[in-house]
Amino acid sequence: MERRTRLEDTNEEIIIRHIKKSDVDGIWNNFNEVVEEGIYLPIFIPVLTDHEKRSWYDHVKKEHETCVVAEYPGLKKPHDIIGQCEISNSEWDAASHVGILGIIVRKEFRNKGVGRALIDFAIREAKRINNKKKIILSCFSSNKRALHLYKKMGFKKVGVRKKQFYLNTSYHDEVLMELWIDDYVK
Ligand SMILES: CC(C)(COP(=O)(O)OP(=O)(O)OC[C@H]1O[C@@H](n2cnc3c(N)ncnc32)[C@H](O)[C@@H]1OP(=O)(O)O)[C@@H](O)C(=O)NCCC(=O)NCCS
After folding, report:
1. Ligand 1 centre and the CA of 51: distance in Å?
2. Can you give the pLDDT of all 186 residues of the chain as single tens digits?
3. pTM higher than 0.90, yes or no?
4. Which helix (H) or strand (E) holds 82?
5. DSSP assignment letter at 42
6. Ligand 1 pocket check for 176: Cβ under 6 Å
7. What is the Å distance from ligand 1's center to 181 Cα?
C-alpha cells in the first residue's frame, strides 16, 4: 500500500509508503539533523550506532507499529527519505487502541505539504492495519508550524505541561493533543 502525491511548490512526485529496512539510515539521518537543530525535540544525543538503528527497526516490525516515509525519487539513498511519521504503541495494556505520533520532515522539504501527507497516510494505515482508534502526540508550545498543522488536521489540544522541558537555557511548555480517528476518517 502506497500513495503518490506532489510537492506543493515544484509539483514533483513523491511516494508515501511503509518503511523498508533499506530506509533505516535515511530515517536516522533525518532524526539526527532535527536533534542538531536543537529546537523541536527534547533530545540532546543523536543516534549513531548501527545497533541502535537496527534494533529500532526490528522493534517496529515486531510490534507491528506504523512507520511511513516520504520518498523523493530524485535523490539517491539514503537522501531519498525526506520525511517519516511513526505511530507507535502505548506501553499500557488497556490502551492498545491508542497510537503515539511522531513526525519529522527534512529541513529543505518543509512547508511543501509533506508533513500533512505523511500524517494523513499514517493515521489511515494505523486504523486499517493496527486497529488504532485514537492518536496522541505532544509538541513544544514554540513549534508554531507543527501546532498549526496538527490543529488543521483535527487534533484537539487537551492540555499543557508547563515548563516540562529545559533546553537552550530556558523552559519550554509541552502541548498535548489528540485525535479520535473516526472523527477524521469518516
Ligand atoms: C512539523 C513538520 C513535521 C511539518 O511538516 P511540513 O511538511 O513542514 O508541513 P506541511 O507543509 O504539510 O504543513 C505546514 C503548515 O504549517 C504552516 N506554517 C508554516 N510555518 C508556520 C508558522 N511559523 N506558524 C504557523 N503555521 C506555519 C504552513 O503554512 C502549512 O499550513 P497550510 O497548509 O495551512 O498553509 C515539519 O515542519 C518538521 O519536521 N519540523 C521539524 C521537526 C518537528 O517539529 N517535528 C514535530 C515535533 S512535535
Report:
1. 31
2. 899 999 999 999 999 999 999 999 999 999 999 999 999 999 999 999 999 999 999 999 999 999 999 999 999 999 999 999 999 999 999 999 999 999 999 999 999 999 999 999 999 999 999 999 999 999 999 999 999 999 999 999 999 999 999 998 999 999 999 999 999 998
3. yes
4. strand 81-89
5. S
6. no
7. 21
